[in-house]
Amino acid sequence: MVKTWAEKEMRNLSRLKNAGIRCPTPILLRTHVLVMSFIGHDGWPAPRLKDASLSETKLRECYLEIVVNMRLMYQKCRLVHGDLSEYNILYFEGHLYIIDVSQSVDLDHPRALDFLREDCLHVSDFFKKSGVSVMMVRELFDFIVDPSISDDDVDDYLEKMQLKVLSRDGGPSSEIDVAEAVFVQSFIPRTLDQVKDYERDMQRIASGKDTEGIYYQTITGLKEDLSGVRLVPSILEEACIPDNSLRLPTSEVNYKGDEADRGDIGSSGELPSHDESEEDDLSASDSDSDGNPDQPSKIDLKLDSKDARKAHKKKVKEERREARKTKTPKAVKKRKKKLAKEKKR
């Protein structure tokens, strides 16, 4: 049994190391003996997070670092620590090192989500007692398991979540404590096959009553109302809603929406230059489908819903796509000009 645990520790440490998570480096495994790198200075081991004397600012940095590492363990290593707390985290040279991963489990373990909620609870309790404003256990859990959060969106997500947490400080803690206790003890389906009555849950959410116990939206990649697949985290969707008073020329909206989607904006943040034919195409898309020249060139961005915004964006892209089909390539235009000059000579 001890030999098996040593092998498991070696394998899990290697997975953490490959994902870029700070941990001891496994060096050699011989029967039940595992040799790994020493975390410390001159024979003095690095302190556990529990014993480290840190400022409030540093504790906040450590909180953000550990929640990102928990997400990396889940998303990249496909592991749940299973016993993560201030006792199994070392503080060394300004960073956190995760240790004791022999009991960590794969995501297909029947109790993986239970262990993950316990890890979230232990981490949140420690930093909360240390004076750090932390996410609710469910918010931290959702951040870790949400498949719609890309690596590039992690910083933005945490920034928006921090604002949400700060705005909640001083609120009714008793309600939060009850919600936390219910969430920790509730069953969370990992797949839709484990959901008993999907349609009933949709009706409950639509009515806005008795939604307690419906916690599987994030882990299954669904929207909060279960209406479809979630492509962007809800907290980032809220941040992307345009101001109702904002009005921009259609051509500018086309550039920012269509060009940004293709990644054509340069590192300076400026849009690439376009030749005259492209400007003609854009002005054509500004007019109505009947080619009415009196159609104004500005559009109203007071879109009532996310679906309306998506439909508008899709329409603009289709117009640009059709315009590009009939547009003369820039190279062809240059070639024609060159031939015309040669004929004149």
Automatic annotation (TrEMBL):
It catalyses: L-threonyl-[protein] + ATP = O-phospho-L-threonyl-[protein] + ADP + H(+); L-seryl-[protein] + ATP = O-phospho-L-seryl-[protein] + ADP + H(+). InterPro entries: Kinase-like_dom_sf, RIO-type_Ser/Thr_kinase, RIO_dom, RIO_kinase, RIO_kinase_CS. GO terms for molecular function: ATP binding; metal ion binding; protein serine/threonine kinase activity. Its EC number is 2.7.11.1. SMART domains: RIO. Residues 276-291 have a biased composition (Acidic residues). Residues 323-345 have a biased composition (Basic residues). It is an enzyme of class 2 (transferase). Keywords: ATP-binding, Kinase, Magnesium, Metal-binding, Nucleotide-binding, Serine/threonine-protein kinase, Transferase. It holds the Pfam family RIO1. Residues 255-264, 297-308 have a biased composition (Basic and acidic residues). Residues 248-345 are annotated as: Disordered. The keyword tRNA-binding does not apply. Residues 1-146 form the RIO kinase domain. PANTHER family: SERINE/THREONINE-PROTEIN KINASE RIO1. Belongs to the protein kinase superfamily. RIO-type Ser/Thr kinase family. This is non-specific serine/threonine protein kinase. The lineage of its organism: Eukaryota, Viridiplantae, Streptophyta, Embryophyta, Tracheophyta.
